[in-house]
Specification:
The chain is built from 3 helices and 5 strands. The protein is α+β, with helices and mostly antiparallel strands. The strands form 2 sheets. A 3-stranded antiparallel beta sheet has the order 1-2-5.
Length: 101
């Protein structure tokens, strides 16, 4: 499996080719969408993209962890983590891609 990464530039290039906006307008559109998504997540909202998946923020409680090297117990502070749950369509699409390879 290749180690290709889809970047912001790739997304804006796709918008440029598919929608017909200028390259600058395409880059601005991608940045605006990503900024709206980020802002919503920071404020605790879910971001649902139909047929793709749902991004959400989850609060994790404080807990006691263990240093695997020394076995020493260390406190882990409470934190917020970003989670992604793919839609059923996305799961099927990825599974179909695995069958073709």
């Amino acid at each position: 499996m290749g180690e290709k990464t889809l970047t912001r530039m790739d997304l804006s290039e796709a918008v440029f080719r598919e929608v017909g906006l200028s390259r600058n307008e395409s880059a601005e559109l991608v940045e605006t969408v990503l900024q709206h998504m980020s802002d919503a997540l920071v404020s605790g909202e879910q971001v649902k993209i139909s047929s793709f998946g749902t991004f959400s923020v989850r609060d994790k409680a404080a807990r006691v962890g263990r240093n695997p090297k020394t076995g020493e117990e260390v406190p882990i502070q409470p934190r917020r983590v970003l989670t992604f749950r793919p839609s059923h369509l996305m799961k099927e699409r990825v599974a179909d891609g695995n069958r073709r390879s």
